[in-house]
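Person: At home tonight, work slowly through the protein below, taking as long as you need, and write a paragraph about the fold.
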Amino acid sequence: MDRPLLALLQQDAETPPAELADAVNLSNTPCWRRSRMWVRALRWKPSSSPPRCR
């Protein structure tokens, strides 16, 4: 399920969630959650320190 979604996000990270959902056969909300999770995970770099909680 995640591989096709990642492939689509790599092609165009600005694709609307509804189009992504149709392409990977998911409803809009689960597809949006997964794509948001992957985009956030791929932005974080292990070399940088994670945000601190105060």
Notes: The chain has one domain: 2-43. The helical segments are 2-11, 17-24, 28-43.
